[in-house]
Every structure is written in structure tokens, then in C-alpha cells.
Amino acid sequence: MSRPLRQASHLSRIRTAAATAVALSLIAAATGCGSISGANGEQNSSGTTEITLWTWQSTINDFVTAFEKNHPNIKVKVTNAGANEDEYMQLTNAINAGRGIPDVVYLDYNAVHQFAISDQLRSMNDYGFSKIRGDFTKAAQNNVSVSGEPYGLPISSGPMVMFYNQDVLAKAGVTSAPTTWDEYRTAAQKVAALPGSAHITNDTGDGGFITSMLWQAGAQPFNVDGTTVSVNFSGKNVKKFTGMWQPMLDDNLIDTSTTGWSDEWWRKLDDGSIATLLTGAWMVSSMQKNLSQTKGSWRIAPMPQYAAGEHANGENGGGALALPKGTDDAKAKAAYEFAEWFAHDGGVKVNLAQGGLPPLNSVLSDSDWLNEKDAFFGGQATHQVIAKASKDVSTKFEYLPYMAYANSIAVDSIGQAYHGKITLQNALVQWGDSLKTYGQQEGFTVK
């Protein structure tokens, strides 16, 4: 890869395209959203620097309170500008308007790439990140880097694991967690034979899930070199995934009607109608909070493999704290101080207490953490599985610089495969064609 172009004319067109959305929403943002209007906050007479943090994390106050206690010279003002795409649109608006830009912002890993390639984030190397970079997992380093330059401090990770309801599988005659996709299919058939309408898992064509499954299969559908992008869903490892998943869809072994995070989804997880979840390890805390009937029945296992003995893995979720350009330089230094504390220092303890998964080698190798047993998971030492899953994540996968948009339109094509109107392989190719067209419209050179 080459370093992101700084002054290229086609990069200017990318910003111009993004500004189109600003023209439509800036008035509403300035009058109806406190996150856009006003200044970022100024140093007061006592010498305290106020920085603005954008995040949708519900437990952020625990971090802010702990940080401010030991950093009385920095005050953190928290703004929830919306989650995921909502926050990203507000951030785009603020950057293009040149005002109301947060000093530090939480971004999913794919969004780090999106804003970095548009030259809208500060390099973390300018603030000393190179001194601690090696303390993070290789996957985390890769997730915040574009052309080798880091644009965020990793604070969470989502190595893929398989959550499985041991009691449901046992009733179906499955005595151990499936270790290969062939075993997973066999287990799915046995679960489907149970009385009622149980399924091995659910999937409605979510772009983030599909991307993670492709990652785990070793596929590399996206390649980014500066502002040159290639999209290819015809590779052998893409077909390795679709060749495994399509027969599961054809035989109705997957629940394709229940949307993730819906009330019905939680109900089915808690009554045994959905027997496994294939997702990021961060799901632990959500399950503990939302499932009551099946407490003690769930376990965690590595993702099934395409061949026995393999240890391939992908990631689903996770993110970083980034420093947008356009803010005061002095505040940027204070913002970095907060971000490093959160990701690498005192914030790690707060994160772990909340059930988070900091992508730090020191955490993943800590014997006390590794040997903790979780009552929700039947007394299993779940961290041992999660730590191994983290180390198995491939670092070869790349995100598109407009991945948030890609995921938002995935259901338009991929969703059709879940209604039998098209094969999953052809749906992915259609998705890819749409992403190529969009990239060209945004000013990227697309192959």
C-alpha cells in the first residue's frame, strides 16, 4: 500500500461528495443537535482544558469520572451524537462545516479507515503512540492503520467466537461443540429435528456478519491502496464460505426471519429456539444482561473451521478513539492523553470491570484474567477461549473506506438470497457491483 494521498484532486471530490449530505442536513444539525453547535470548550481561568468526546457508549461516565479524578487539569465533556452511521454523518457534517468538531471520537474500526483515507484524522504517531503500539494485538494495530500509519487508539475488539446453548445441543444429541463447519451442519440438522421450531442460528443478511464470516474464511474481497479500491467477491475463499452457508439456507437450517437485537431475537435465545451465536466476543456482557432463563446453559467455543486442526478467525466489531483534524492543537494533546489512558493505562481496569475486551497483549496473557470463571457460562473459564480467538484473527483483511455505507445497503442484495430469489454467491457479486459504482461516484479509482 502507498501512503494516503494528501492533496489529490480526486480526494477533493470525495470531500465534495460528502459535503452534499452536509448541504441537506447542516441547518437541522446546527439547530437541533447540540453536538454540532457551539465551540469545543475552552481552557478556563484555572488552567483546566475541556475536551469534547463523542461516543455512544452507555457506561462512558465510569471512565470519565476515573480519568478526571487523576487528571484534574482536563475536563471531558461527553456528547452522544448517535450510534454508528448517525455519529459518522454528524462527524462528516462538523468536519465539512469547520465547527463543532469533537476533540476525540469513538469510531468502529471500519470507520477509522473511512475517515483516515479522507485525511480527516490525526496520526497517533504525532503524539507518541509508536512507544506503546507493540503492546496491542497485531489485529488491533492493523485495524487502526492505513498504509502503516495509525489513526486511532484501539479500546475494544471483537474476535469471532461461537456461543452455544449446551442444553439445547445435548437435547439434539450433540454432545460436544462443533469444531468444523461440517460438524456444525450436522448439529444444525439435529437441532432442526427437535420439537418446535429451533434453529442452529439466525441470519437475515446483515452486512457486518457476512463480512466477518468472509474474513474467517480467509477471503479478501476488498483491497485499498491510497484512494484506489478493488472489490472482488469471486475469489475462492468467498466461494468457500458461500459453498458452506448456501446449503444451510437451502435446507432451512438457519432462522432467516428473526432480526438480531430485536425483542423476538432475545426471546428465542432465551427459550432455546436459537442454539448458537456466531459473533464477536464482546457479546458476553450483552448476554449476561439480557438472558435469564438460560443462565448457566451457554458456553463459548472457537469458531468452526473449514478443515480440522485449522485456527483461522476473523473479527466482528471493536473500535478505537480517534482525533479528528480541525480542532485546537493543545486540545488534541489533551484528547490524546485521555485516549491513551482509556486504551492503555487506567481505563483498562475500568474496561475490564465492565466486561470489556481491551486488545492488549498484557490482558490476553494475564493468568488471573485467563482463569476467571463465569457463572453465566456454567463456570467456564471463557477468557481462555477468547484470548486464543484474539490471537487467531487474520491481519490480512482490509475494510473499504466506505464500509459503513457498504453495510447499510448489504440487505438490498444479500437479503434476497435469504428469500430464495438469488444465490448467496450471486448476491455478493451484486453487492460488490453496487460498491464499485458508489466508490466511483465518491471519487475513488475502482478496480
Topology (SSEs and partners):
Blueprint: H1 9-32, E1 49-54, H2 60-70, E2 74-79, H3 85-97, E3 104-108, H4 109-117, H5 138-143, E4 145-146, E5 149-150, E6 153-165, H6 166-171, H7 181-192, E7 201-202, H8 207-216, E8 222-225, E9 228-231, H9 236-250, E10 254-255, H10 263-271, E11 276-280, H11 283-290, E12 298-301, E13 315-322, H12 329-344, H13 346-353, H14 361-364, H15 367-370, H16 382-391, H17 403-417, H18 424-441, E14 445-446
Parallel strand pairs: 1-2, 1-3, 7-10, 9-14
Antiparallel strand pairs: 3-13, 4-5, 6-11, 6-12, 6-13, 8-9
Helix pairs in contact: 1-3, 2-13, 12-13, 17-18
Overall mean confidence score, pLDDT: 90
Fraction in helix: 40-55%
CATH superfamily of the largest domain: Periplasmic binding protein-like II
C-alpha termini separation? 15 Å
Q: In the residues, how many domains can be counted?
A: 2
Number of helices: 18
CATH fold-level assignment of the largest domain: D-Maltodextrin-Binding Protein, domain 2
Secondary-structure content class: alpha/beta
Shape: globular
What composes the largest sheet?
7 strands, mixed
- What is the percentage of strand-forming residues? 5-15%
Estimated radius of gyration: 22 Å
Assembly annotation: single chain
Weakly predicted, low-confidence segments = 1-41
Tally the beta strands: 14
Identify the CATH class of the largest domain. Answer: Alpha Beta
Q: What is the architecture of the largest domain at the second tier of CATH?
A: 3-Layer(aba) Sandwich
Family: Belongs to the bacterial solute-binding protein 1 family.
Organism: Bifidobacterium saguini DSM 23967
InterPro entries: Bact_solute-bd_prot1, SBP, SBP_1_CS
Protein name: Sugar ABC transporter substrate-binding protein
